[in-house]
Amino acid sequence: MGALFDMPDVSHYVDDTKDQLIHDPVTRLVNRQEFERRVKRVLLTFSQENDEDEEHALFRIDLEQFVIVNEVCGHLAGDELLRQFTFLLQHVVRVRDTLAYLEVDEFGVLMERCSLNHAYRVANKILQAAQGFQFFFNDYCYDINVNIGIVPVTKQTSNFIELFKQANPSCNRAKEFNKNSIYLHSKGNLDPTTYRGEPSWVADIYQALDEDRFLIFIQPIVSLKELETSLAHYELLIRLCDKDGKLILPGKFLPALERYSMSSVLDRWVIRKAFRMIADRPEFLATIQFFSINLSGQSFVDHELSDYIISELEETGIPAEKVCFEITETAAISNLAVASNFIRILKEKGCCFALDDFGSGFSSLLYLKTLPVDYLKIDGSFIKNITYESVDYAVVKAVNEMAQTIGMKTVAEFVESHDVLQLLKDMGVDYAQGYNVGEPSSLSAFFSGVPRNIA
C-alpha cells in the first residue's frame, strides 16, 4: 500500500519568480523587457478599426548626475537616488500609465489614451518636480537635472524599434537646449508650437507685462448638489495675447517662467489685477462664495508672498473668505513643510485652498492629512474617460470618497459631456468644472454687464 503525501503549495514561488522577471529589483518598476511588451501591445491595437484614432505617447527620461553619484558616492547612493527619483515620478505619472526603469540613468513612460498636449503637460510637471529635488547622501548634495524626449505613438508607428529610434535622439536633443528640457519628436524636427527657446519667451513676457497684454479669464465651478441655492464659484485663468492678437495658453509660456524663477512675478500681477477688478464690483462679490487663483510652486515658497496677499486684501477690502488659492499636488508635495506653513498663514486670515491636478499617484494620498486644504480638484485626465475606463472610474471614486472622509470638498475638472456629469453626480462629487458646465470667458467681457462701484 503506497503512502500519501501532501504536495506543498508552490504557487507563491511561481508568483515571486514572475514578479522578478518583469520588475527591476531596485526601483520596483517594470523593466525594459516588460515595457517593450506593453508598448507592442498598444501598437497592436491600431490594427483594430475602432482604435485607429487613439492617441498615446512615449517618454524617455534621462536622469543626469546619476553616473556621477554612482561613481563618487558608490552604488548604495546610486540605488537610493534611483528609488527617490522613482518616488518623485510616481507622484506625477497617472496611475494607469506604465512607468519603467530601462537602464542605468534612463526611465520610460507609456501614456495610453493621452493627447500630446496632455503628455507635454505631464512632462512639464516632471520638470517642475525635478527642479525642487535635491539628493543628499552623507555630506554630498546634488541638484538633479532631467531631460525628456516625447514621441507620439500613432497608427503610423511601424514598430517598437522605430519608436525607440525616435525617442533616443529626442531625449538627446532636449539636452542640447538646456538642463531640464523637453523635446517633442515631430517628423524629425522640433515642433515650434510646443517648444520654444525659453530666453525668447522671457523677453516676450516682460514686454507683455509692460504692454498689459496678459488677460484674465473666468470659468464657473458648478455645484452638483445644490444647483438652485449655492453661491457661485469661479476660477480665474491667465492668457497671453501676442502682438498679432492671438491668445496663447499658459502651457506654452509657464515653463519658461518656472525655469527663470519668474512665476511669482506673474502670480502677483494676477492677484493685484483680479483683486482690483472684483473689488470694483461689489454686486458681483456678494453673489459668489469664492473666486480661485492659481499659484505656482515658486510663489508659495516666496516668503514675502503671503504678506503681499494680506496687504492686497486689506487695500482692496475684499473679504479673505471670498478668495481661494489653488496649488498643484506636485508642487505641494515637493515642498510639503513650506506649503503647509504658507497655507496656514493665509487660512488664519480666512482664505481657503484647493489642491489642483490631484490623483496622479496614490502615494500622494498619504500626505493629504498634513495639507490643510479645503478643496481637492481631481485631475481631468481621469475625469474625461470615466464613462468607459474602469480604472479611471475607480480612481475618481476612491479619491472622492477619501477626500470627503477627511472633510474636503471635491471638484472634477475637464467635465466635457452630460454622461460624465451625470456619473459624477451619482458618485457624489461636489463640484464640476469644464466645457459642459461653463466655458472660460475674459473677465472684462464677463463684467461688461456688471455694475461698477463708482464711489
Can you give a write-up of this model?
The chain is an alpha/beta fold. The protein folds into two domains: 180 residues, 2-Layer Sandwich (Alpha-Beta Plaits), CATH 3.30.70.270; 252 residues, EAL domain (TIM Barrel), CATH 3.20.20. It has 18 helices and 18 strands. The protein has an eight-stranded mixed β-barrel with strand order 9-10-12-13-14-15-16-17, surrounded by four helices. A six-stranded mixed sheet has the order 2-3-1-6-7-8, with helices on both faces. Strands 4-5 form a two-stranded antiparallel ribbon. Helix 3 packs antiparallel against helix 4, helix 4 crosses helix 5 and helix 5 runs parallel beside helix 8.
Tell me the radius of gyration.
24 Å
CATH topology tier name of the largest domain:
TIM Barrel
Distance between the termini: 107 Å
Total domain modules: 2
Q: How confident overall, as mean pLDDT?
A: 81
List its salient traits:
22% strand; alpha/beta; 6-stranded mixed sheet; Alpha-Beta Plaits; single chain; 455 residues; globular; 8-stranded mixed barrel; 2 domains; TIM Barrel
